[in-house]
């Protein structure tokens, strides 16, 4: 990423924490290197002046150079930031080209996520018993 992170954690994805949100929006990672990593994605995050924290998500090994807004990333980020910031409700910004603003809440062992969304698929599932 061109900067040393404050922390690098391994979960379902790599979670890489930086000190400043300005660094997050301007980063231009080498996607070929990220594609070679052993987990599905790399999430980068930092605290922010305007939001509680910001994030970006890269999953080139799955054919997703950068995901515009990634709900599953916040299931990892919210517990991390809750412990660090000592709060359970967050205003967050995903700093992709399209971007997105979310409200997230840590509710026990669950993360509640809300915000405006862009529908990309609709379907139904039938289960026969």
Which class do the helix and strand fractions yield?
alpha+beta
Low-confidence stretches: none
How much is the average pLDDT? 93
Helix proportion: 10-25%
Q: How many E-type strands? A: 8
Note the gap between the termini. 50 Å
Rg value = 15 Å
Principal-axis shape equals globular
Q: Count of helices?
A: 3
Order of helices and strands: EEHHEEEHEEE
User: What portion of the residues fall into strands of 2 or more residues?
Assistant: 25-35%
Largest sheet: 8 strands, mixed
Protein described:
The chain has 129 residues and is an alpha+beta fold. Helix content is 20%, strand content 35%. It is built from 3 helices and 8 strands, in the order ββααβββαβββ. A hairpin with a 5-residue loop joins β6 (89-94) and β7 (100-107). It is globular.
């Amino acid at each position: 990423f061109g900067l040393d992170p404050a922390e690098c954690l391994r979960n379902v994805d790599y979670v890489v924490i930086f000190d400043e949100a300005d660094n997050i929006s301007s980063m231009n990672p080498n996607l070929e290197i990220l594609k070679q990593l052993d987990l599905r994605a790399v999430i980068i995050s930092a605290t922010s002046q305007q939001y509680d924290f910001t994030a970006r998500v890269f999953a080139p090994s799955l054919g997703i150079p950068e995901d515009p807004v990634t709900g599953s990333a916040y299931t990892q980020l919210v517990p991390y930031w809750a412990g660090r910031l000592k709060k359970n409700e967050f205003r967050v910004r995903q700093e992709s080209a399209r971007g997105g603003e979310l409200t997230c809440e840590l509710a026990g062992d669950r993360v509640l996520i809300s915000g405006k969304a862009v529908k990309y698929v609709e379907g139904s599932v039938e289960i026969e018993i």
